[in-house]
Design a protein that fits this description.
Alpha-Beta Plaits; alpha+beta; 10 helices; four-stranded antiparallel β-sheet; about 280 residues; 2 domains
Amino acid sequence: MFLVEAKRIFIVIIGAVLNAIALNFFFIGANVYASGFTGIAQILSSVFTDVLHIQGISTGIILFILNIPVAILGWLKVGKGFTLYSFMSVGFTTIVLEIIPVLHLSNDIMLNAVFGGVLGGIGVGITLKYGASTGGSDIIAMVLSRMKDKPIGSYLMVINGLIIFIAGVLNEPENALYTLLALYVSTRVIDGIHTRHEKVTALIVTRNADVLQKEIHNTMTRGITILPAKGAYTKEEKDMMYLVITRYELYDLERIIHEVDPHAFTNIIETAGVYGFFKRND
């Protein structure tokens, strides 16, 4: 268990470092904006520096402050483990942003948008893959999605649309287009590392369905259907568990299955849509 959590923390740190490098080496110097709360922090930092002429309020500091109330909301509504690692990601990102300087590696805004998008996408992708997020809009979108049972992507799209619009207002209109390019590149990289679907279906064939069901429900609020199953070759009687989860919960599900029944057969299917509620009704 210790090694699993240590690996998770290590990946979160690596993801935070990559996000910080994408910002300070590519995005900030070119006035290209990242997605979510990171992009909002960049915008506020630009307003303080360029419009209000207030120095010393960096993107990292604003990002950390914005995530404090979000972390409290996530702790209460999403889950303690997920929120803890997400806020840890934000904390390490802030620290690295303050340590490394803002550089202008290239004057080509397209190169900055593409390479920043790739590095940022890798950072977010590996963070999601190991059961955390980069905080901010991810947590808010998850809370709203659970309240209304609507796709998370629609909420993130609204936030990113506002960022793109403001990027064009604060700078040149082409900055909005290059911000859109950066968001597209980072999204494609995240999809390749993690999964492009917000929800996935898990089919688990196991001998320990009761224990597995209990551990899953202790971690996430998801409905589970248990069906009888029989091995075609061994004729052994087993159970097949059928459940739909968000992509943010995939790491925790894999961890639980490995701990409870490492011999279980699990098939993860990308889910295009879900009709009705997919959370547990207590």
